[in-house]
Each structure stands twice: as structure tokens, then as C-alpha cells.
Amino acid sequence: MIEMQDVSFGYRAGSELLSGMTLSLQPGMFHFLTGPSGSGKTTLLRLCYADLLPNTGRLSVFGQDVVGLSRDGIAMLRRRVGVVHQDTQFLDHLPVAENVALPLSVSGQVVDMAAMRDLLGWVQLAQHARALPPSLSGGERQRAALARAVILSPDVVLADEPTGNLDWDMSMRLMQLLIELNKTGKTVLVATHDLNLIRAVKAQVSARVLRIAGGTLQLAGADL
Fold first, then answer.
1. Over 90: is that where the pLDDT of 214 sits?
2. Which of 74, 84, 125, 161 is the most exposed place for a label (fewest CB within 10 A)?
3. How far lies 65's CA from each of 1, 37, 42, 117, in Å?
4. What's the pLDDT at 220?
């Protein structure tokens, strides 16, 4: 689904943040990406949905080499990838339901209100449909961000430190939703530095753990 072969990336010429990355996200699998702060986890996720392009190497998304794709071609690929951003990126003047529906609006699709109610009910936010984002708690904002990420029924869901500002109970509540998505056949990749969270999820679902260390990607040991 998403494959990298010897991919390197740096924000400045002559300085590589990621080097020699080889990655294959398997369909229907749950993946974790871990590593210290500043190691390049967010950068790797941005490569996965072609928000960034590699300096060297090959990046393939759904069988298409993204280097050389037109802007429209990349936009079409991105519709198949749902992203939960670390900072949620809501429009604070729009109600929660309208924020969640934005991917539909941008792609010119009609919002099915019954489906919207079901989606907000799934993330336990039906009662907040008309609320503005600033009124939500941290956990509610992250669940709303997850609803927005999956409204186009993507094949892959990427989540960038989705529990970074949540307590343990709220973190596990969000992870349960991601586990549910994975059990429907979605490929999930979660970037996190929380090893206890990874272990808790691995007790419930088979998950592959990848670690960035020194700019390279490694498969974590059995202890994770």
C-alpha cells in the first residue's frame, strides 16, 4: 500500500534527517512508529501521504510512484489516506460536524447527514455536533479529528502522536477506536513515543513496531 525503498529526506541541502528508509505498510495491519522527539516521525508520516517527496529513493503509494505525479494525481491518492494531525487543525469558527465534513466538502461530495450522525456517535461526539472546537476537551478534539480522518473511508489511517496531550484513560479510549478501524480491514500507522501505550495495544491486536534511530528505520524487538 505504501512502500519506500532507500528513501532519504532532509529539509536542507546536504543535511539528511532520514536516510536509507525502507518500509512496507502491509494491508490490514496495525503499525506503530516510535523514536525520540525530533527523530523524524512526523516527517516520515508526511512522506507516507505525499505531503513531502523524498530527496532520493522510491516512494510508492497504492502502487504509484509519487515522484512525478501531478498535483491532481497526488490529491487523488490522499483521499485514500486519512490523517490525524498532532495539533488537530480545526477551523474554530465552524461547528464540529462541519469540521468533520470538510474533506467531503473539499472533494465536492454531498454530506449524508445520517452517516454523519453515525460517525459522530461512533466517536461519542453526537451531542457536540454543533459545538465549536475550542469548547471541546483534548480527548474530544482528538476523537473529532479521527472522525474527520475517516469520513472518506480511507484505506490507510495515519495518526501523529494522537495521545500526546491525553491522560491514560483518554489515550486508551482513542486507541480502542483505532483498533476497531483496524479490525474492519484498515491499515493503521500510529506515531508515538509512549512505549506503555504500544504494549497495551499489542495485548489486544497484532501490531508491528518500527523505530527511527539515527535517521534510519528499524524493526523493534519482541519486547515491544
1. no
2. 74
3. 11, 29, 21, 37
4. 80
